[in-house]
Structure formats: structure tokens, C-alpha cells
Amino acid sequence: MRTHIKFKTFVFAVVTAVSALSVPATTFAKNPKEVDLEIVNDQLVITSKAGENDCPFYEKRENGCIKVKKGETSEIYFHLKGDTKCQLDYGTNWELNAVYLGGYNSADKPGAFGFDTISTADFDQVDADFSIADKSSGRVNTTDKSAKKIAIKNNNQSKYVVWYKIEATCERTDGNPPYTTTSDPRIKNGGIE
What is the per-residue pLDDT across 162-191, written as a single tens digit (0 to 9) for each? Predict the structure, then answer.
């Protein structure tokens, strides 16, 4: 009888240990991409370098570009670091506000963000990957949002390039609309094909 209890205890311990080991694997499976930003002279500046976040060295790159490799999904985190005081008239503090997508499969930055000019099939791919809140503006639903951090999910089911624009706003004490600043690199999806 005692041998049977010891065996059950051993099996429980092994199962618990294996379960504990699987937690880091799940965390790793999120494949986080990190983009660091700062406010410099009341402009949003990306401080993450072009070679970070798996951007290939042989392609046109800009600071903040992101590549999600074939077969991977990713959570993309935007972090506003450093002093966020707004120096503009009646300004308070800069806060991250939104992420927008646009320029589907374009080699160049889009003049305007959003997806009103692409086919329904192409938009459905982007929407399935990023969960678009508004097709016309390209605004993405966030998975986490605070003054200094925004996170979005990339399911990476289709292969294409899309540009992103990260937006920060500064509320004003005089009641006028907030100031806005943006920065706009691109995301390259590897898809699952």
C-alpha cells in the first residue's frame, strides 16, 4: 500500500514539474517584439535599432521595423521611456494613444493609413492577424494599453508587409484638442505558407 502511495506521489511530482516547465515555453511562444520610444523636442522618436526584432539586414530598414518569422505569432510591445513632459503651450504629458496600420504590401510608407483602397480578401488577412478596430483609419485593437505602453497581437497567418504608425498625444490644460505626434516604420509578416 505504501509503495502505491509513494508511486502516486512520484507521478504527481513529475506531472507538476513538467507543467511548471511548460510555463516558460508558453511565454516564449508569444515571441515578443519590443519597440522603445522617447519624446525628443516634443516628437515621438523610435530608439529601437533597425537590426532588432528580426529585421533582415538585406532589406531597406528603419528603426523600429519588425519581422515576424514564418510560422510564429507575436505580441508587439511599444514602450515610451524617459521624460514625457510636454513642452508645448498648455501641454501636460505625452502618452501613447494608438497603433494604426496601412500601406498593405507597399515598399514605401503610405501617404494615409487604413485599408479603404485594398480588396476585401487582403483586408480580411490583415484583420485576422491584427484585429483592426477601424478599417478606414487602420486603428488596431490593443491587448494592453497604458500611458507608457501599448501592446498588440500579430497572429501572422498570411505573408505580407504592412506599415504601422504609433501615436502619442499630449492633453492640454486650455481645453483645446490634444497635441499629437507619430512615428511610422513597418512590419513584415512571414505568414504560415
Answer: 999 999 999 999 999 999 999 887 778 777
Question: Which domain does 17 fall in, by range?
Answer: 1-30
**In terms of domains, do 20 and 44 share one?**
no
Residue 60, helix vs strand vs coil: coil
CA distance 122 to 105: 10
Domain match, 41 and 118 both: yes
What are the grid coordinates assigned to 41, written together?
523636442
Strands 179-183 and 159-172: antiparallel
Summarised one tens digit per residue, pLDDT across range 47-102 is: 988 778 887 765 666 788 888 999 999 999 999 999 999 999 999 999 999 999 99
Residues 93 and 186 in one domain: yes
CA–CA dist 42, 44 (Å, integer): 7
Shared-domain flag, residues 48 and 8: no
Q: Could you give the CA distance from residue 154 to residue 184 in angstroms, rounded to a whole number?
A: 17
Same domain, 2 and 67: no
Q: Which three cell numbers stand for residue 135?
A: 478599417
**Are 107 and 148 members of one domain?**
yes
Taking alpha carbons only, the member of 73, 78, 66 closest to residue 131 is 73
- Grid cell, residue 80, equals 515610451
pTM of the model: 0.81
Return the C-alpha cell found at 121: 480578401
Close Cβ partners of 29 (under 8 Å, ≥ 6 residues apart): 73
3 state DSSP class of 73: coil
